[in-house]
Amino acid sequence: MAESPRRRQLLDAALHVIADQGLRGLTHRAVDRQAGLPEGSCSAYLRTRSALQQALTDHVAATLVADVDALAEQVRDAPPSDQGVEAALDLFLRWLGQRELLVARLELTMLATRDPDLAARLAEHRARLVELVDEIMGSLGKEHSRERAEALVASYDGILITALLKPPGERRVFLTRSLELLSSALAGSDEG
């Protein structure tokens, strides 16, 4: 479902609220203030706190899946090479520049451990990520399977969290080395 411009504005504001105040700070009023909108705007679109959290979960997950989908398209259209690490590095550096997106994802993931509805939403999006990573590995001529792709997605999560905690000047080197190690350890060898 396409988001209206106002709803997207509210969800983008909610990302900033979570990044700055955590989930405890995620209220309709805080989102309205962050968005620069009159009080009551957020609750007109998302009536309850649960609706706000669910919509934000879908927004964050859809954004990440769309980025990985674009990466899969880029790899699929490129001549075979070892560009997978470089493409992933570019994507991860872009995500690290969007701190709010990653922090919100972490906060919502932790909340999903106690909220079955959010867990189901995240599981659906994660399954698509695993599918895309498996597709990318196949496009690059790497040995691949759902299990390998799932392990890569989980490993990428850990790498991103660790990179987020590093000083910005150290992130590129850390990511490059980590992605190279992961590529050789889990992605398998070239099939050809």
From TrEMBL:
InterPro entries: Homeodomain-like_sf (IPR009057), HTH_TetR (IPR001647), Tet_transcr_reg_TetR-rel_C_sf (IPR036271), TetR_C_31 (IPR041583)
UniProt KW keywords: DNA-binding
KW Signal (keyword) present: no
SUPFAM superfamilies linked: Homeodomain-like (SSF46689), Tetracyclin repressor-like, C-terminal domain (SSF48498)
Residue ranges flagged as DNA-binding region: 27-46
Residue span, HTH tetR-type domain: 4-64
A Pfam family matched in the record: TetR_C_31
Designated name of the protein: TetR/AcrR family transcriptional regulator
